[in-house]
Design a protein that fits this description.
The structure holds two protein chains of two kinds. Chain A is α/β, with parallel strands linked by helices. In chain A, 31% of the residues lie in helices and 28% in strands. In chain B, the strands form three sheets. Chain B has a six-stranded mixed sheet with strand order 5-6-7-3-8-9, with helices on both faces. Chain B has a four-stranded antiparallel sheet with strand order 11-12-10-13. In chain B, a hairpin with a 2-residue loop joins strand 8 and strand 9. Chain B starts with a strand and ends with a helix. The chains are: A alpha/beta, B alpha/beta.
Chain lengths: 289, 276
């Protein structure tokens, strides 16, 4: 097979639905990943991310709908062009970095995979003796060893520090620049900024999709500045509003500024109430509600 | 509740020959949320355990309330999976010496605040990750502790549950508790009153989020391409870089940078220092 061309559809799911008995885990989802782009798949627990990924990989047949990988149904042939990094990393803990790579390259029949930089220095170290950041980078190098056209990464940066996270995202973005398509899940919404496009899942359905700015759109939050944030917080929290503390300022996504002002006035709390653009995290809370 | 400040000064902890923490000072004032940030192996859990008194320091001093005035949520499950939600709350509440009447009232209130009322008879082992963390937090605050310590309560937790957990721990601070929360994520730390960033057992950055940003030396620049000769990292399809001398290379401009960038700069500087 020839390598992917920029813009080519690598993965396409149409009207994908999956039932488990009475439970509708994925409900009529359409999703595409093209060569050269990083797509973020974002959802709450139980939103259907894992079920959707398993269908995309060809590990689980959909109840209805269709998956095409590189223009054909998932098969052994398509598996060879795919790199999958599960949350558990899928490495052999009692083998070294180099042995894990050798195992993977033998399975994929690719022979030009190399370990570079810091990974070359730890090539003979057992996986279980590596710190998490390096273990994740080793898992990346191994998942990319056969130069896959489509990368599926499940929570790839969980638990690592900002510099290690920056190294991992550098690898992800560089793969996309070299023509791979990337589908990445994350619970951490600051990482949404690293993606070209987002697909937001809630209760098995796509509730928003597009570039970050488009998904946030004109969603607003109410910001409350007050000398007594404790009293303001208690009043808004007791009223059942999704209030959050940022430093000594309060923010309430999706709320009416008038209603917030009245609640605070009734509680006798002096406060300045303004409307501000919502963050992606706040938008997500509003979308998932 | 007393308006005291808990924390540690010049704290050192060794495990055998390994230095887990060295010369770490940290304040956890009553009525505020303090964040401890760092990756795997940075020393967050050791610091939290030393604050709670379950790890003995090899150097320095720790100020903490009596153990009965302390609440601790460990990383991992932290609940009894073969007890129901209500049994978990009642077991830990009795361990802290709450009487039957008070316990009943507290449990009803906590179930409502955590949204777990509908799950009160469910086995804790059958809860989702986010619900389990909310239960663990409810168990730690049932006796209204003066110092509430949480070890990565939001790791692996979905964004909706994460927002709810932060609302609950802000509520504990609003009630007067000193709250200490460990996290690997800087966007969470930005919500805290103060931040301590740990790297390999040492304090890398400390202060309010604004102070940490203001203390970043040189200039963080950004642009569409990787600038030559500067340590650089990506933000989406664009690049950020650290200009130690404060100059703006061609094709870049000053970036509106955040805590994530500030920590990357601090880590780069420290690694350069080690290499030199």
């Amino acid at each position: 097979m020839s390598p992917a061309r920029s813009g080519e559809q690598l993965a396409s799911a149409s009207g994908l639905t999956r039932r488990f008995g009475e439970v509708l885990a994925v409900d009529d989802v359409t999703l595409r990943v093209a060569a050269g782009e990083v797509v973020g798949l974002i959802g709450a627990n139980g939103a259907g991310k894992t079920t959707l990924i398993r269908m995309l990989l060809g590990l689980l047949p959909p109840t209805t709908g269709q998956v095409l990988l590189f223009g054909e149904p998932p098969s052994r042939r398509t598996r060879a062009r795919l790199g999958y990094l599960p949350q558990s990393l899928g490495l052999y803990e009692d083998l070294t970095v180099a042995e894990n790579l050798a195992f993977s390259t033998a399975a994929y029949g690719s022979h030009d995979a190399v370990l570079e930089g810091e990974l070359a220095e730890v090539r003979d170290v057992l996986i279980r003796e590596l710190p998490l950041g390096l273990r994740r980078r080793a898992a990346f190098a191994i998942a990319l060893g056969h130069h896959p056209d489509l990368l599926v990464l499940d929570e790839p940066t969980s638990g690592v520090d900002p510099l290690q996270r920056a190294y991992l995202w550098d690898t992800i973005r560089a793969s996309a620049e070299h023509g791979a398509g990337v589908l990445v899940t994350t619970h951490h919404l600051s990482e949404a900024e690293q993606c070209d496009r987002l697909v937001v899942l809630a209760s098995g359905r796509v509730v928003a999709a597009g570039p970050l700015a488009e998904v946030v759109g004109d969603t607003k939050a109410v910001e409350v500045s007050t000398p007594s944030w404790e009293a303001a917080f208690t009043a808004l929290d007791d009223a059942g509003l999704p209030v959050n503390l940022v430093g000594r300022t309060l923010r309430v996504p999706g709320a009416e500024p008038g209603a917030v002002g009245r609640l605070l006035a009734d509680a006798g709390v002096p406060a300045d109430v303004t409307t501000v653009p919502a963050s992606f995290e706040e938008t997500f809370v509003v979308l998932a509600a | 509740m007393s308006r005291e400040s808990w924390g540690c000064s010049g704290l050192g902890v060794r495990y055998g020959g390994t230095v887990a923490l060295q010369d770490v000072s940290f304040e956890a004032p009553a009525g505020a949320v303090a964040a401890v940030v760092g990756g795997d192996g940075a020393g967050k859990t050791t610091l939290l355990r030393a604050l709670a008194g379950t790890v003995q320091p090899s150097a320095g001093t720790v100020r903490r309330p009596d153990v009965r005035r302390l609440g601790y949520v460990s990383a991992g499950p932290g609940v009894w999976s073969d007890l129901t939600v209500e049994e978990n709350l009642s077991f830990s509440g009795r361990a802290y010496g709450l009487g039957a009447d008070e316990l009943g009232r507290r449990i009803a209130g906590l179930l409502e605040r955590t949204g777990l009322t509908g799950a009160r008879d469910r086995l804790a082992g059958r809860l989702s990750g986010g619900m389990r963390q909310k239960l663990a937090l409810a168990m730690a605050v049932a006796h209204q502790p003066d110092l509430l310590i949480l070890d990565e309560p939001t790791t692996g937790v979905d964004p909706v549950s994460r927002a709810e957990l932060w609302r609950l721990l802000a509520g504990a601070a609003a009630g007067g508790a000193a709250v200490v929360v460990a996290t690997t994520y800087l966007d969470e730390a930005e919500r805290a009153a103060t931040v301590l960033v740990l790297d390999r057992g040492r304090s890398l950055l400390a202060g309010t989020p604004d102070e940490v940003l203001a203390a970043t030396p040189g200039l963080v620049v950004e642009g569409p391409a990787r600038p030559d000769g500067l340590p650089a990292w990506r933000r989406g399809a664009r690049w950020r870089a650290w200009s130690s001398g404060g100059s703006t290379p061609p094709g870049t401009g000053a970036a509106a940078f955040d805590l994530e960038d500030a920590v990357i700069v601090a880590q780069l500087r420290q690694h350069q220092g080690r290499a030199a």
